[in-house]
C-alpha cells in the first residue's frame, strides 16, 4: 500500500554503531553527514602557493576553520622550503606565479612525489589551458573566481584518491571518541 511505504532516509549514514563494553550492548551515536564531514581529513596539511596575499589569507582562514593545517608560500622557492619541513598532502598552486610558473612547478612536484595532491588554480579557463595543466601533473584544475566550498570539495576528492591508492587513512579523535577507519572501529574513552 502506497500510504504505508516508508520514506527513504535522507541521510545514508544515519548513525554509527558503537560497542560500549561497560553496558555490554550496542549503542548508537547519532551523527549526521554534516557532523561526519568534520572528521574527514583533520590531520592533512595544505600548502597554498600564490603571489596574491589577499587570496592566501582568505584560503588560509577558510581551510584552517575546516580543521586543516595550512601553510602559505608566494613563490616556488618558498614552496620548496615548506615542502622540505612539513608533511604536505595537497598543494594549491597558482599558475601565474613570478619566476617559475605553476605549470613548471607542477611538473617538478610530480617528479618529486607521485603521491602529492596538486591542484592548479588559474584565471585562464579555456580547454587548452586546463589540458596543459592536467598533463603537467596536476590532479585537478580550478579556474578563478571559485567558491571556497567547491575548492574544499575538490581537495577532499584529491585526498580520497590518495587514500584509495593505498595511503594510510588517518585515525580521527574528537574528545573521548576515537574512529579508526582501517579497523572499522569506534571507541569511546578507550573502551
What can you tell me about this protein's structure?
With 191 residues, the protein is α/β, with parallel strands linked by helices. It is 34% helix and 25% strand. It is built from 6 helices and 10 strands; from the N terminus they run ββαβαβαβαβαβαβββ. The protein has helices spanning 33-37, 53-65, 76-85, 102-112, 127-135, 148-164; strands at 15-20, 25-30, 45-49, 69-73, 90-94, 117-122, 140-143, 172-174, 177-180, 185-188. Strands 4-3-5-6-7 form a 5-stranded parallel β-sheet, with helices on both faces. A hairpin with a 2-residue loop joins β8 (172-174) and β9. It starts with 14 loop residues before the first strand and ends with a strand. The model is unreliable at 1-37 (pLDDT under 50).
SSE topology:
Layout (H helix, E strand, L loop, with lengths): L14 E6 L4 E6 L2 H5 L7 E5 L3 H13 L3 E5 L2 H10 L4 E5 L7 H11 L4 E6 L4 H9 L4 E4 L4 H17 L7 E3 L2 E4 L4 E4 L3
Parallel strand pairs: 3-4, 3-5, 5-6, 6-7
Antiparallel strand pairs: 1-2, 8-9, 9-10
